[in-house]
Amino acid sequence: MTTPPDIYLPYDDAISRYEPIIGIETHVELGTNSKMWCGCSTAFGAEANTHVCPVCLGLPGSMPVVNRQAIESTIRIGLALNCTIADWCRFSRKNYFYPDMPKDYQISQYDEPLCFDGYLDVTVATDEGPQVVRVEIERVHMEEDTGKLTHAGGSTGRIHGADYSLVDYNRAGIPLIEIVTKTVIGAGRLAPEVARAYVTELRDVMRALEVSDVRMEEGSMRCDVNLSLNRPGDGWGTRSETKNVNSLRSVERAVRSEIERQAAVLDSGGRVIQETRHFNEDTGRSTSGRSKEQAEDYRYFPEPDLLPIAPSREWVEELRASLPEMPSVKRARLMVEWDISEFELQTLANAGAIELVESTIAIGVDSSAARKWWTGELLRVANEQGVELEQLSVTPQDIKEVESLIASGALNDKLARQVFEGLIAGEGSAEQIVAARGLAVVSDDGALLAAIDEALASQPDVAEKIRSGKVQAAGAIVGAVMKATRGQADAAKVRALLLDRLGVSE
Amino acid sequence: MSDLIRQSAATLAAAIANRETSAVEVAQVHLDRIAAVDEKVHAFLHLTGESALAQAAAIDERIANGEQLGPLAGVPLALKDVLAMKGEPTTAGSRILEGWRPPYDSTVVQRLRAADIVILGKTNMDEFAMGSSTEHSAYGPTHNPWDLDRIPGGSGGGSAAALAAFEAPLAIGTDTGGSIRQPASVTGTVGVKPTYGGVSRYGQIALASSLDQPGPCARSVLDTALLHAVIAGHDPMDSTSIDADVPDFVGAARRADVRGMRIGVVKELGGDGYQAGVAQRYTEALNILEGLGAEIIEVSCPHMEYALGAYYLILPSEASSNLARFDGMRYGLRAGDDGSNSVEQVMAMTREAGFGPEVKRRIILGTYALSSGYYDAYYAQAQRVRTLITRDFNAAFEQVDVLVSPTAPTTAFKLGEKLDDPIAMYLNDVATIPVNLAGICAMSLPVGLAPEDGLPVGFQIMAPAMADDRLYLAGGALEAALTDKWGHLLIEEAPAL
User: Which residue, of A274, A294, A314, is where some domain finishes?
Assistant: First the structure.
């Protein structure tokens, strides 16, 4: 049976007829050195099945032992998200069969999460200016990651239809926390932006806490988006769960796409199916996964191989006192320090540029120059390529080098863009690129004067105007010189030489 | 030294240490004995003779070099096949683990090795320790050395039979609802279910994690204490293991004194349903204890009658989850892997082919009991009963120092007799199960032969958590009095085979 292709209602139409309700579940791999229940390394990218032992392979007889650092990180996350920390809670077993699960159950938390009832305030840009939205947090709980399956053969890349599948258990047992929001109601048209702003803010909180490297492209932070639509005044609709939403941009796109899809279903008199959908980064659309109409029964029960977690009040307060500056507080401080508006700061935040700008400033680059490059040229390229800023192979150190080349007169802004192009293409350091591409500013006065004379000779009427005091006409000559030097001249210098040549002053 | 196989572990260790005999000789005579009788008994699933002899030779060499070794150095031991032993087959009595060789040692095995105890092989058991007769082993039943037509108890029938057949002087068992004590009871041997958390479970293939506990088995109370001391103590690999000082089991077994001890007779664990000869030997033992200076007090534990019901919800629930991992994906049996079946089908076919009927029965029970909509009525309710039973014990231990009961309602029954009646089989453990539910400790020791069938009767002593030393104090006294009476340990009356 082939399912008919999904149809979509244009976003403006969809949002004018339906109200979206969203909920976001975010999995974050904690950046502990060792796994949740054993001493195996959590390093990413090792050869398959080399970071494994009897415990994380779930071999018969093996038993888990809780990683204390993971508990500490989870409590800190809970505190940063304004949650209540449980006095006493247990792990539970979530039972289901799947080949990526060594024990065929996942140790998780069920009805006794370690952290619960919190919130995170996020800011979204609207036409009327920045708007603060409070996203309530249902719970933060601990669990273990599964192994990673690779399906070979078949056309879908999924287990069904594959010729065979490979399992890498290096990831199995890596500490994972799940952060579940309560339903976000009333975001309306802004739902996609709210979703993105929430995940962005959450990521920034994780970074500030230094509990995870939150690299969405490596899967150390992954989102599932729950969404339903209802007509104003009606009860809640049936929700879908979109999985594999693995970039900030995708969060926004996934919400938008699902609003458009469900609206089309409802508009045509259809029924939204409760199902899991898989988001495709390339198409920006999701495809239907398994139906959840018959809810799976995970037969949760308290994990008998582990003792309950009972963090002492003293410990929790100690952790609370040692929390770092939260991103929202930090942003308020940066607005003052960098002398920028909330809107400008929000632009930086949405671009994921705050840390990059900060590190750039920290190594001595002027604040406005740092912001100019990250949110200008580099953000443009990142958007063009559909990647996050930090994925571009440009570092704060590169910005510093480019800036010092500009300061020394060896580069101008226009040439600098070409240097960044080279950096992104991986052509080496800024200086190497300048040399290799022959980008240095022409600073030899003789060569510039020759070019000026040539330009004056070819445009005698313009030369006459300038001589007669119409200094604004100088631009035509400067432009011709810049063209002749293929942009490798310092325009200000050309202008000064030209006026000097003609004996006029500004 | 004559007839090495009939010596106690303590005696053998001393003889090896002072070079009256050697560890190699001791290992060899036991391997010879196994070769001679195990065809009839079938206590062992797998022998580790070669490595045992190599280990024994190394021990002899160290003794020759003047090294002081531990109190059981060079003594052979039979290991229940549910404990992981690096590089050796470990099946838990199941087809589904056929061919699997663990790449690691359980903590118990590590401690045995560290104590220079020589492991002769892996013993038979009911599949995944589910049963009271070893008839649920996928590899065929073990026969009781007292009467080869009878069951040796279960699930640890192989370990108990190895002791009673003089194939090994020491054995390791595991006890989830009586799997050490009931086999000890029906084979005339001694077995202790330690306090939950007293011995590490790391490397024990889990049946029911909240009930399982490895423990020592031997032919005398002192040998049991010596072995218990070797395997006890906190293990960072097992979060549920207790981080506290280990009581002095050996000292208690040597003191063997019940003067002034208050001994509680659990009213609910006796009376109707107990074989006449069992009741008779039990009462005689109580009289002996009283004669030794103990005070016998009747106590009531009103919730004991619900123990069996609660147990048969908690155990299958945990087992259904613990046994999920046997899916053919990573180790052991894999069925249906001809390319035509999906991963779910291969998992299902593997489990269909690899698990026996009792295992399937309990997995189905447990899956049902944990299901959404039934959880509160079954699993959660059973946990509440468990709390009540624990309170019963706590209240009883405020009045008395130890509690006693017959270990099993009957002596060894015939092979096949209860195989088709799971409830009758489950009822065997009615007196042992409450101990596991409460996490306390208990011992079974032989108190004579039932007059009607001439088979051993076991006497159960129960003590509070982390007071396992009281088991040895009382058990040691009772054993000494009985030995005086008979002129030897009861086991000496076992058939020669």
Answer: A294
A16 and A142 assigned to the same domain: yes
Which range, of A90-104, A205-219, A433-447, averages the lowest pLDDT? A433-447
Contacts A59 to B, Cβ<8 Å: 84, 102-104, 331
Question: Which chain B residue has its CA at the smallest distance from A159's CA?
Answer: B343
Contacts of B436 (CB under 8 A, 6+ apart): B175, B176, B177, B178, B193, B196, B211, B213, B311
- Whether A317 is in a domain gets the answer no
Distance CA B138, CA B134 (A): 9
A411/A462 same-domain check: no
User: Range with the lowest mean pLDDT among A286-290, B55-59, B159-163?
Assistant: A286-290
**Is A326 a domain residue?**
no
Q: Are residues A266 and A373 in the same domain?
A: no
Same domain, A137 and A270: yes
B293: which DSSP letter? T
User: What is the pLDDT of chain A when averaged over all its residues?
Assistant: 90
- pLDDT value at residue A293: 55
Q: Are residues A421 and A459 in the same domain?
A: no
Q: Domain check: are A146 and A239 in the same one?
A: yes
Just list the catalytic residues of B. Answer: 80, 155, 179
Q: What type of residue is B25?
A: E
- Tokens 């159960």 label which residue? B460
Chain-centroid distance of CA B367 in Å reads 27
Each residue's pLDDT tens digit, A321-338: 999 999 889 888 999 999
Residues in A whose CB is inside 8 Å of some CB of B read 54, 57-66, 93, 95, 97, 99, 102-105, 159-160, 165, 167, 297, 299-301, 304-307
For residue A405, give its domain range. 351-437
Residues of chain A neighbouring B379 (CB-CB closer than 8 A): 301
Q: Collect all residues from B whose CB is shorter than 8 A from any CB in A.
A: 83-84, 90, 92, 97, 100, 102-104, 106, 201-206, 208-210, 236-240, 317-318, 320-321, 324-327, 329-331, 342-344, 347, 367, 370-372, 375, 379
Query: Best interface-test mutation with A: which of B202, B204, B212, B333 has the largest number of A CBs within 10 A?
Result: B202
A60–B83: do the CB atoms touch at under 8 Å?
Answer: no
> Which of A155-164, A276-285, B45-54 has the weakest average pLDDT?
A155-164
- Domain co-membership, A286 together with A355: no
Distance, CA of B170 to CA of B163 (rounded, Å): 7
Bridging pattern class, strands A105-108 and A184-185:
unpaired
What is the pLDDT averaged over residues A221-226?
96
In this prediction the ipTM stands at 0.96
> Which chain A residues are closer than 8 Å to B210 by Cβ?
304
A449-459: b (≥16 Cβ within 10 Å) or e: bebbeebbeeb
- Residue B295 pairs in a beta bridge with B262
Question: Is pLDDT of B80 > 60?
Answer: yes
Q: How many domains does chain A have?
A: 3
pLDDT digits (tens, 9 = 90+) for B181-213: 999 999 999 999 999 999 999 999 999 999 999
Q: Is the residue at A53 inside a domain?
A: yes
Write the CB contacts of A188 (distance below 8 Å, at least 6 apart in sequence).
A15, A19, A20
Nearest to A99 among B208, B324, B343 (CB): B343
B341-393, pLDDT tens digit by residue? Answer: 999 999 999 999 999 999 999 999 999 999 989 999 999 999 999 999 999 99
- Say if the Cβ atoms of A102 and B90 lie within 8 Å: no
Average pLDDT score over residue span A154-166: 76
End-to-end CA distance of chain B: 21
Same domain, A56 and A112: yes
From CA A414, how far away is CA A409, in angstroms rounded?
Answer: 12
Report the top-level CATH class of B4-304+386-493: alpha beta
Q: What is the mean pLDDT of chain B?
A: 96
Instruction: Tell me the per-residue pLDDT of A126-135, one tens digit each, with 9 for 90 and over.
Output: 888 888 999 9
- Contact list in A for residue B83 (CB cut-off 8 A) is 61
